[in-house]
Amino acid sequence: MHFLQVLLVTLFIVICLLLIVVVLLQKGRGGGLGAAFGGVGTTAFGTKTGDVFTWVTIVLTALFVLLAIGTSVAIRPPKAVAAKPELVPPESPITVETPVSLAAPGRSLSIYYTTDGTEPTEQSAKYEKNPVMVKPGTILKARSYQPGRLPSPVVTAYYGAPAPQPAVPPAPSLPATLPATGA
């Protein structure tokens, strides 16, 4: 938690405790619920509206409401992130143009992609149902967006040509005949 958040929560708890103490210290003001139905007649805050505890209660209640609102605004859970798109087939060496499908779980998800190595944004190409055709040497990047959520992390795949295999030198050949040994 940040300093401001800790301060707000601490002040909120202190105000709550003070409000409880002040309400409990006040003396009774009339007939309670009976006064509401025509029993003892008093004003809204008792006969002495200038009473110190009454004004302290009003101020603490106002602080309580303001701190409750301020704390709920300052301490919010982080926004959820949209699901990461998956590339099928995943990053692998290719020798010919290959179709790549993009998928991400979730409803109302939009997937955007680039094939030039730049970061995808909502202005990039939008993935529809047709696979993206990639050529050897293509860097495919994709990101999903969902209303009310943060964009997903960028998924990057390099569909490069297979690495050339090193030439294997031929095994040394043995002479066709072995020299005769004198025995």
Describe this structure in words.
The structure is a single chain. The chain is α+β, with helices and mostly antiparallel strands. 27% of the residues lie in helices and 17% in strands. It has helices spanning 3-25, 33-36, 52-74; strands at 86-88, 98-103, 110-114, 125-126, 132-134, 138-145, 155-159. The strands form two sheets. The chain has a four-stranded antiparallel sheet with strand order 4-3-6-7, with no helix packed on it. A three-stranded antiparallel sheet has the order 1-2-5, with no helix packed on it. The mean pLDDT is 81.
Tell me the total number of β-strands.
7
CATH class of the domain at 86-159, named: Mainly Beta
Q: Estimate the strand proportion.
A: 15-25%
Q: What is the helical fraction, as a range of percent?
A: 25-40%
Oligomer: single chain
Output the keywords.
alpha+beta, 3 helices, 17% strand, Immunoglobulin-like, four-stranded antiparallel β-sheet, three-stranded antiparallel β-sheet, elongated
